[in-house]
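Predict the 3D structure for this chain.
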Amino acid sequence: MTARRIDGQRIAAELRAGIAAETAELTAANGIVPGLAAVLVGDNPASAVYVRNKAKACPTAGMNSSVHRLPADTTQGRLLEVVAALNADPSVSGILVQLPLPGQIDESAIIRAIDPAKDVDCFHPENLGLLAAGQPRFLPCTPYGVVRMLERECIETRGKNVVIVGRSNIVGKPLALMMMQKRTASNPAGGDATVTVAHSGTKDLSGLLRTADIIVAAVGIAGFVKPDMVAPGAVVVDVGINRVGDKLVGDVDAGVWEVASAMTPVPGGVGPMTITMLLHNTLAAARTMAPNPRIS
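Done. Predicted structure below.
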């Protein structure tokens, strides 16, 4: 058996077409053009690529974008000034500060300084609290991308055993919240699943993974999930992006393709979905500025 390939590029393109149409509708009806502002501190090559890809996606969705580049020795005070200016700018619907930040800057202080209504990455404690309460303002981009991929592929999560390998604030924790919550009109991304969050130190991780109907690997270790850890027919979502030599590889060993029923590739899987959900959140933020806001 070879797993069915879950094509994140195709799904992202389909969703972006819908986002572009909704953006055009918002602009025509209210004169509002969503705007995404990205802040990049320092010269981390990976961060520069991420920011460039996010900025490039905006025009095709009918959105404005701006990138604010600051040197690596930028002080925390200066960065807070930039964030405050973007908070006050009515042309900016969404703000993202690319992480990681240089060591002299307290990341948590910067995240808390972003207006929660413009926090399209959904990192602010207020937005995470709303997510935990099942009343999300925004949904974190990578976890939401995972949920939408499964939905578009007609892979049911309700009642399933989901094991998430990785407990980061960006993927593991928020995805667990989304997967375990009830699916309601106000929280359509609720997975109604039974969720276990594991990590590299989990006792008998292999045995635990073999109980999973759906595995999400987000541990940041190349090839960490091996074929003998996966039950035949399980669905495997690989969130990892690791550089090995001149190749990008995920957290899941290539041999798992012969065990799983469906699996995401790296690259071309979750990555395009993350940027797509960022566009979705930016549109949702812009809608709140309309006379009769509607967030879908």
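The chain is about 40% helix and 15% strand.
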